Amino acid sequence: MIDVAFTRWDAVLVVVVTLQSLAMAYAESPKWKRLFLTLPLPFTVIVLSVGRPIDGSNFLSILVLFAYTQLCRVLHARLGTPIVFTIALGVAFYTVTGFVLADLVPTGDRAFWIGSIIIVAIGFALHFALKRVDETPIRTTLPLRAKLPILLAVSTLLVLLKNGLQGFAGFFPLVSVIAAYETRTTLWTLAKPAPILMITLTPMLIVARLVQEPYGLGTGMAAGWIAFLFALLPFWLSEKNTIEQNKM
Hints:
- The chain has eleven helices and no strands.
- It is mainly alpha-helical.
- It has one domain.
- α1 packs parallel to α8, α2 packs parallel to α10 and α4 runs parallel beside α6.
- The longest helix has about 30 residues.
- The chain is globular and about 50 Å long.
């Protein structure tokens, strides 16, 4: 049975998702949009809210998130499916997949370490295999009063689903739902961060798992964030250098 009680962590989640989504929506540069999409702020809040230790299901959920971004890109950009219907199908795909796999993924050390190796390998392969596409700068024109109800509705949906999704709740495409709509004219901006997430979140999850047992989940997540930022820095600097070279 899914617990639908609204806790203080759920309130924090609504605030975090709202602020991150607004930052992404009102940022015109695709580079900044990708940065905001890469930050695992909702994941952190959800993990602390659910209180479930880091395990192998977190790695598999990143792959499902990548599949969500590609599904949105193919349905809308290639097949011409209306963006709202595309997002609905994407959310349904993630939700159903998460519910099905939540109880099937082993939570032991072996599954975790195998998952970490696989996800990093896939991340690097996708990062170098995906061709770079020119992205059109886009900034939302929707007023804040119209955007907030959407964010609140999506956040409420996650609150209802997160316990049932277990380890898959952390990467539920909460901000990505808003991002899919905001980047509907250039969905590469939505898809590109996924391989980088695979690479940068792996050290975060590893450190969090190692630290959570002796010091608790909260300390583990804090230490994991340090590992994440160190892993993200080379990609951010590379992106910055590429943009500066293109301006020359």
